[in-house]
Design a protein that fits this description.
Layout: E1 9-10, H1 12-15, H2 25-32, E2 39-43, H3 50-63, E3 67-72, H4 80-92, H5 96-104, H6 112-127, E4 131-136, H7 144-155, E5 161-167, E6 184-187, H8 189-192, H9 196-206, H10 212-222, H11 226-238, H12 258-264, H13 271-280, E7 286-287, H14 288-295, H15 301-313, E8 317-318, E9 342-345, H16 347-358, H17 362-378, H18 382-391, H19 395-411, H20 415-423, H21 427-431, H22 434-446, H23 450-465, H24 481-497, H25 501-511, H26 520-536, H27 540-549, E10 554-555, E11 558-559, H28 567-581, H29 584-601, H30 606-624, H31 626-637, H32 645-661, H33 665-681, H34 685-701, H35 705-720, H36 731-748, H37 751-768, H38 771-787, H39 791-808, H40 812-815, H41 821-827, H42 836-855, H43 877-886, H44 892-899, H45 903-916, H46 922-939
Parallel strand pairs: 2-5, 2-6, 3-4, 4-5
Antiparallel strand pairs: 1-3, 7-9, 8-9, 10-11
Length: about 950
């Protein structure tokens, strides 16, 4: 064997220097591949870990008794002779016999290269053992003869030779057209990026004290770029404190990466490209037309596209994720192609370029921001337009754009974008614009900052009617009539969120008298608010008539469908009116229809889709029991922060009954304590009363009568806060207190008084049309009759309850009416000539009871609340899966393939993730999750 190697040629010993490397098993498995493979190509920019991957693979190959030759063209001087010498030295280091024939037949003529390759492949074939020839830095090859030799090595390769080429650029060879093209494996930039799990493992090797959350933040910033991960870990180690580096908090810090980008990126760019990229860094997203406007004279869209495309191929630019704010085409159809290509910049590259941008003269920077503001405003990208207006110092322009954008986004059902838009403005800018102050109040309502919202409404109402010394007597108030009517609508929604029908009733005269100038948006809101008001006053037919008889709401001539004030939301409320009556069959039909239509229409109907799914929980509970319904909440809805108090209450009760069905009474009581805290904080007394009743029932069933009496006292105190309430939601508190008294009287054996209380409450519910409650009370009365020894009267009441339950679609309600409900129901089967319909209904109830017993062996889904700050608490299980894959930098197509979903379904879930986390893209999702996790830690 040869002992002295020429430059660039390395044998196995030379590449086996001591180094800790991450074993990337998924890539190693792909490299192993079939034995018939002739060639492996690794193509990615510098810093993507090509050499490190090959080193780890080399260790596996050595253990498999494979010989390896390594040739690094960057170390080989130019010239064909130097290349041939280095190639023979690398192979000769394995076995001198491989190169013996090549030396013997070497002649300087036109066939010298081919003759050399033939001799080498014969020597390799005769060698017998598997040989892997690794040629690194193939992009450095300039000679046509060198490239020809590499291609011939692949074409003439014997079965025991595998050629591996690593390059920073496209291979200057035609491997795809060779006879062996089907046995070529190519790994590109996206294949070589670290996944989230790999980044965590890699950073854990280098920084043992780094926790998973900090590693995840670094992964998101680096986007899995191996060299940037290495630099990030070095920066954290250099600072001698994990928390001292901004990188672990997800904050881009240009300092550790500036030298790398200057050496490996900026040095290859022309001055024109570098100026263009610096301009682009000012914007979070850009296209060729915007770049031309930002860069100024001498730059055309075509030139910008030509300059940026190579950078996109290198992974420095990528298409932005499909977030809520999607670029729209220009108004003039001939001003831009129908589908413009937009990019965003690698976050760390952008941070480095921004330091260059900040060094530019102030006038130039302000010009760039002002230009970006105009372009984004023209395309309807309101968030970006406002951001650049503020950066350009144009506060009034930012306020005007925010006001216009908030109105447009709200009517499209994009409330989370309204929130993000208005949040960019400082208090002074909002305070100087009354209409913006009104939008800020909408934001406070959506954020559950109900006290802040109430104060904002009070302040705005004062401004609307105030006069000042410098105001002419005939001058209009600060709020125009149409905006004042929107303020009335906001006050109504606050009353709904507070579950305060009394306040809503007081606003009714204003609601019924819209001003002549009231816009379509306000009139559409009036329609849904009135429906809500009437259904909770038990005027069910009037609530449904509003949706049925009034025209479909339209804004600018287009039907308003998926927003809070849209027709789908109105149909949801019609379904709720049937559910409040107890008619689950009719409610379910409406919910299913609305849900299907909302899903077909996509993200702009997200609010209607979510509300319908929340309302559907009650139907699932009735048909399949609490465990199935609770799993639906966890998998499809996440935290039970209902859009209206009814949905929040239903999800809390269902989740709790799932805990009870699983035999976890202690956990169920803890869950109710959390729920009571949540509801009490937001002043939702009706829902709080229902939660206390649930707590009372668990305590009574657990034979803790003392605790149950304490819960009843809490209920009575709650009732005392609302004496003599008029028809509305709060009268439910008095009903709940009466139900608790009925349960306690039954427990204490006061049977005849109990029967009288049941009759009184049943009559009250019947008068209101809330016949669903009557069915459960009939079963309770049947139990009282049984205890009194009136068997026939008990059976008669059971039959009455069954007929009512069958007509309304109530299974779980009857099963949960009393601890002895199932045995009571079974007594009806002894009735001679029992109606087959009731017999079959009893079988269905028994099947539901059996399914609950079977499912009780499984752990019940853990209930979660809005004040749970963990990001996962806001997402369904499917959304959490997609978020995890998204954070691994997987594109939508790969996410769809991994989870077995359609591409449209993935996009739909992503938009829900952006909405729930108030995010405007993948990087924003990461930032939001990090912030919420930090708040959770601070709370502990």
């Amino acid at each position: 064997m040869q002992s002295d190697l020429s430059p660039g040629a390395t044998a196995l010993r030379a590449r086996s220097r001591s180094r800790r490397l991450l074993v990337r098993q998924s890539l190693l498995d792909r490299l192993a591949g079939p034995g018939t493979r002739r060639c492996v190509v690794l193509r990615a920019p510098a810093g993507f870990g090509k050499s490190s991957l090959l080193l780890t693979w080399q260790r596996e190959l050595v253990s498999a008794e494979t010989d390896i030759a390594w040739l690094r063209l960057a170390d080989v001087p130019e010239g064909d002779l130097h290349f041939m010498t280095a190639l023979m030295a690398a192979l000769g280091a394995i076995d001198a016999a491989i190169t013996r024939q090549a030396v013997a037949h070497a002649r300087p003529d036109a066939y010298a290269i081919e003759r050399l390759v033939i001799a080498l492949v014969r020597g390799i074939a005769a060698h017998g053992r598997k040989v892997v020839l690794i040629v690194d830095d193939v992009h450095c090859a300039q000679s046509e003869n060198v490239l020809h030799a590499l291609q011939l090595l692949v074409e003439y390769a014997p079965p025991n030779l595998l050629c591996v080429f690593a390059s920073q650029q496209e291979l200057p060879m035609t491997l795809a057209h060779t006879p062996g093209s089907k046995t070529v494996l190519e790994l590109r930039r996206d294949d070589l990026r670290f996944s989230l799990a790999e980044s965590i493992d890699y950073l854990g090797m280098r920084l043992p004290d780094l926790d998973e959350r900090a590693a995840t933040a670094i992964h998101r910033l680096t986007e899995g770029w191996p060299a940037l991960l290495r630099l990030a870990s070095a920066d954290v180690r250099r600072r001698r404190g994990v928390q001292s580096s901004p990188l672990v908090h997800g904050v881009p810090d240009p300092e550790p990466f500036a030298a790398y980008f200057h050496a490996h990126v900026f040095s290859r760019l022309s001055a024109t490209q570098l100026r263009l990229l610096t301009c682009c860094a000012a914007a979070t997203r850009f296209n060729a037309l915007l770049c031309a406007d930002l860069a100024g004279a001498g730059y055309t869209p075509t030139l910008c596209s030509e300059l940026l495309e190579p950078l996109a191929r290198e992974g420095l630019l990528s298409s932005p994720p499909e977030g809520p704010e999607t670029p729209e085409p220009l108004e003039a159809q001939d001003a831009a192609p129908p589908r413009e290509r937009w990019w965003h910049m690698h976050p760390l590259l952008r941070s480095v370029l921004l330091t260059r941008f900040e060094a530019w003269p102030e006038a130039e920077r302000l010009r760039v921001h002002a230009t970006a503001c105009q372009v984004f405003a023209l395309r309807g990208l309101h968030h970006q337009a406002v951001r650049h207006a503020l950066a350009a110092g144009h506060r009034e322009t930012a306020a005007r754009l925010a006001e216009r954008g908030a109105a447009a986004l709200f009517t499209q059902g994009r409330m989370n974008e309204v929130i993000a838009l208005v949040r960019q403005l400082d208090a002074r800018t909002v305070g100087d614009n009354t209409n913006l102050a009104l939008w800020m109040a909408w934001v406070e309502l959506a954020d559950y900052r109900l006290d802040d919202c109430a104060r904002s409404i009070e302040r705005l109402r004062g401004q609307a009617g105030a006069t000042t010394p410098d105001r002419a007597p005939d001058r209009a108030p600060d709020l125009a009539p149409d905006m004042r009517y929107r303020l009335t609508l906001l006050s109504c929604l606050l009353a709904i969120r507070n579950d305060d029908n009394d306040a809503l009733s007081r606003l009714l005269p204003e609601l019924l008298a819209p001003p002549p100038g009231a816009d379509d948006f306000a009139l559409a809101g009036r329609r849904n608010v009135l429906t809500w008001l009437y259904l909770h006053r038990s005027e069910f037919e009037q609530a449904r008539r509003i949706q049925r008889d009034e025209p479909t709401p339209r804004v600018d001539g287009e039907p308003m469908v998926g927003t809070l004030f849209g027709s789908l939301m109105g149909r949801c409320l019609v379904g709720l009116s049937y559910a409040v009556e107890g008619q689950m069959h009719r409610a379910e039909r409406i919910y299913r229809q609305v849900l299907n239509e909302a899903q077909e229409r996509g993200a702009r109907c997200a609010e209607a889709e979510r509300l319908t799914a929340q309302l559907l929980v009650e139907v699932l509970y009735e048909q399949h029991g609490p465990l199935v319904a609770a799993r639906f909440i966890q998998e499809q809805l996440g935290a039970p922060d209902g859009l209206i108090p009814d949905t929040a209450l239903r999800m809390i009760i269902v989740s709790n009954r799932a805990q009870q069905a699983a035999g976890r009474r202690r956990e169920a009581l803890e869950h109710l304590a959390q729920a009571a805290s949540f509801l009490g904080r937001f002043g939702m007394d009706r829902a709080l009363a229902c939660v206390l009743l649930e707590q009372f029932r668990i305590q009574l069933a657990g034979k803790d009568a003392e605790a149950a009496r304490a819960s009843l006292q809490e209920l009575e105190v709650l009732q005392s806060r609302h004496p003599g309430v008029e028809p509305g939601t709060l009268r439910r508190i008095a009903d709940v207190v009466e139900q608790a008294r009925i349960w306690l009287a039954m427990h204490d054996g006061e049977l005849l008084p109990t029967l009288a209380k049941i009759e009184t409450l049943s009559h009250r519910y019947g008068q209101r049309g809330q016949i669903g409650f009557v069915a459960a009370l009939q079963l309770q009365a049947a139990e009282v009759e049984r205890r009194l020894g009136r068997a026939e009267a008990s059976k008669a009441r059971v039959c009455a309850a069954l007929r009512l339950g069958h007509r309304l679609g109530l299974l779980a309600t009857l099963l949960g009416a009393h601890d002895n409900a199932l045995e009571l129901i079974r007594t009806a089967t002894t009735i001679p000539n029992l109606d087959p319909v009731l017999s079959f209904f009893i079988e269905r109830i028994e099947a539901l009871a059996q399914s609950q017993r079977d499912a009780s062996a499984e752990p019940a889904p853990a209930p979660r609340f809005r004040d749970d700050r963990r990001p996962s608490s806001q997402l369904t299980l499917r959304e959490a899966e997609i978020a995890e894959l998204l954070l691994q930098s997987l594109p939508n197509k790969k996410i769809a393939l991994t989870l077995g979903l359609s591409l449209d379904t993935v996009k739909w879930h992503l938009k829900n993730i952006y909405m729930k986390l108030d995010a405007h893209g993948r990087s924003a999702v990461a930032q939001r999750m990090r912030q919420e996790a930090e708040r959770d830690d601070d709370g502990r």
